[in-house]
Amino acid sequence: MKKLVAAVATAVLVAAPVQSAFGAKKKAAHQHVEGTITVPQGGNAAATCVYRTQRALLSAGGPNGVVGYTFDVDPGTVGKKFKLEAGSGVGMDISFYADMGDATDPSTAPANYPYETPGPGGEAGTVPAGYPIAFVCMTEGTNGSFSYMAGKGVK
């Protein structure tokens, strides 16, 4: 009888992790980032952002949110839809970067995938593969806020 109880107990202990590994559904990824940016960019003729400024500031240990806002992209949202909502009266753009690159070298820039629609408002699209860093910048307005949402249930 002891052998039977031990065999049943062992079978239950072995089967439980296997069942949970196959039975559990993977939760869909969702990322939500909110922030503010103090100073607008868009000083060039195309009114697009110069992301090198934000990269240089962060590389020097400066704060996030002065001339741009940087965050890591949740890998679970790659290939999913995203939406960048801009606060009232401001224009926000977003660019996804492969890496930080060398911000002190003006002749080079890391590979990036930009969403830059001129004018007030934000951006929407698909989170690109191979670009784990997101840079948000403000092209119009001052002290602007944004909300970035990606993945499951993007509204």
Offer a concise description of the structure.
The chain is an alpha+beta fold and 155 residues long. The chain has helices at residues 2-23, 51-59; strands at 30-37, 69-72, 81-86, 91-97, 112-115, 123-126, 133-140, 144-151.
Radius of gyration: 22 Å
Number of extended strands: 8
Roughly how many Å apart are the termini?
Answer: 60 Å
Give the ordered list of helices and strands. Answer: HEHEEEEEEE
The amount of beta strand, in percent, is 25-35%
Overall outline: globular
Query: What is the count of helical runs?
Result: 2
Low-confidence spans = 4-20
Average pLDDT, rounded to a whole number, is 83
Largest sheet: spatial strand order:
1-8-3-6
Helical percentage: 10-25%
What profile does the largest beta sheet have? Answer: 4 strands, antiparallel
Structural class: alpha+beta
